[in-house]
Amino acid sequence: MFAASSHVMWIPVCDLTMRRTGYSNHLINWAIFFIHGGYQDSLSGCSYTRILVTDMETSLYRLLWRNQLIATLNEVHPFDFPWVCARFVAEEMDPQIYQFLQWIDRESKTEDGIINDPPFPNELLDDWYIEKPDGSKSEIMFPVFDFSDGTVEWR
Question: 41, 53, 62, 85: which one has the fewest Cβ atoms less than 10 Å from its Cβ?
């Protein structure tokens, strides 16, 4: 899922505090994923950590339920393994699917998260797919839309 321009690099931890200095100037449009491990420079006292830096995928992906197009996705990037995140443009969809996705959105924002069975047919829980730009499909769990900020997550 990582873009072809992904690479691992060592970076001073202080540059990841959103100060626009050093490396962080060049990482503004990149997704950053921390990799465990690091070291402290004995001369400067600065701590370093390894990060994976990848530009966000700009190709269009498609989110499908069965064979029905639900949303077109862009800016696809790993979020919090095994989760993947993207921005979406929703398509016109069956009202029951839309209500199901809104319910998931609301429940996912509660303190306990999604702990109750949805008040919808169980068939809506399965048969979700991501179609990649090359036409291949990957089955996923039901997606978690955030309609307020235009993002969707899945695994």
Answer: 41
Reading across the β-sheet that carries 7-12, which strands appear in turn? 7-12, 47-55, 30-40
Helix (H) / strand (E) element for 135: namely none
pLDDT band at 43 (very low <50, low <70, confident <90, very high): low
- Exposed (0-12), middle (13-18) or buried (19+): which is 96, by Cβ within 10 Å? exposed
- Whether the CB-CB separation of 6 and 52 falls below 8 Å is answered with yes
User: What are the angstrom distances between the C-alpha of 53 and each of 17, 44, 58, 89?
Assistant: 16, 24, 15, 26
Tokens for 47, please give them. Answer: 């701590």
- What pTM value is reported for the model? 0.64
The 3-state DSSP class for residue 70 equals: strand
Tokens 């070291």 -> residue: 39
